Amino acid sequence: MINTNKRLFDRLKKELPEYVTGLQLDSHVVRYLDTNDLEENVLKYSKIIFKIPIFRNKSIYCVKYGGYNYIVIPEKLSISNPFSTYVLDNGFNNVSYNENAGLLTLLWSEDYPLKEFDRYELVQNIFGKTGIFTVSDLQPFFADMDVWRLNKNITISESLFYSLYISYLCNTKIPFHLNFSENTINHIYELCENETAQLLGENLYMCLTSTHWKHSFLELYRCLENLFYFPYIRNLYNFYGKKVSINKISESFEKILGWHPKEEDALTYLIGGLKSKGYFDDFINTIEPITESDKDIDKSRILARRIYKVRNKIAHWSKQSLYDANTWDTIIKYTCELIDDIYYLYRYELSQFALTEAF
Length: 359
Known about the structure:
The chain has helices spanning 2-13, 37-45, 101-109, 119-125, 135-138, 158-172, 182-193, 197-209, 213-225, 230-239, 246-256, 263-272, 280-287, 299-315, 325-345, 347-351, and strands at residues 31-33, 47-55, 58-65, 68-73, 87-89, 91-92, 95-96, 131-133, 146-150. By secondary structure, it is α+β, with helices and mostly antiparallel strands. The chain has 2 domains: 2-150, no CATH class; 158-351, no CATH class. It has a 5-stranded antiparallel beta sheet with strand order 2-3-4-9-5, with helices on both faces. The protein has a two-stranded parallel sheet with strand order 1-8. Strand 3 (58-65) and strand 4 (68-73) form a beta hairpin. Helix 1 (2-13) crosses helix 3 (101-109) and helix 6 (158-172) packs across helix 8. The two termini are 24 Å apart. Residues 354-359 have low confidence and may be disordered.
């Protein structure tokens, strides 16, 4: 605990302006953040499990303490109730985790980002003094955070933490770079609340925070691409009477056979497993109206062709403008619905893979 406090004030010491004299900066000078018994216990027994850089000077942290995992979100927005089914609470006995001096000492002593501030404030308010400091003394120098405790019965992964951050942002109603409709945001939020949260968190985060519609769409296309092998895996698994593990079948495609499915065919096969959904016609027509030449073609093939065509128009250089903002928003909404349906269809196969990194 002494070393943690020393690291904390050493971090701040590096931010002092040059050529300031008369300060007590020797290593033997005692400065520490005041803690009560509970906060001291948190400082002693808590541990940072991982951090995820998400933006310049912003990271999500996972902290473990007392048998629970906590998410540290690099925001301080007006959320008072749990924003996700994975989240338990944000405080104990009417005291917010954001104010827990033990937890703050741990995070601030590591690499939790600093705010922009007048360096002479450090001279006046911190290094012009010694001894005990309070949370309110140091908070002006560190970036905002919001800390929430998670439910015990969940597997912790980086993908889940991306999903939790998305759920948090969706609940704040803050504007994103792209003008997503509320309906589309709700579809993305739902993906972060079901089993796909453990698989697609980073892609969904990149989709929601993109600055261009085409990049937002490509992140969702990658979620579909992730399952291109799965119809073939399911067929072989059933062919061998379920006696060969799904993992071994999957490995044989790439490592042994060096085989990759053709994208449009794989996408058709993938969508075909759903039969026909009520939104298929609207999805197809949003991308490109159904024509006479489509009338004898299966809906899954038509939709696969449309989606793959959008992907190719983005991937390959073209002067042509694709869609307006409203059309893109609708395409992304339907793509989210498709992802949700397909991942549910292959939920058994997904459960056989170690697709999340547990901590």
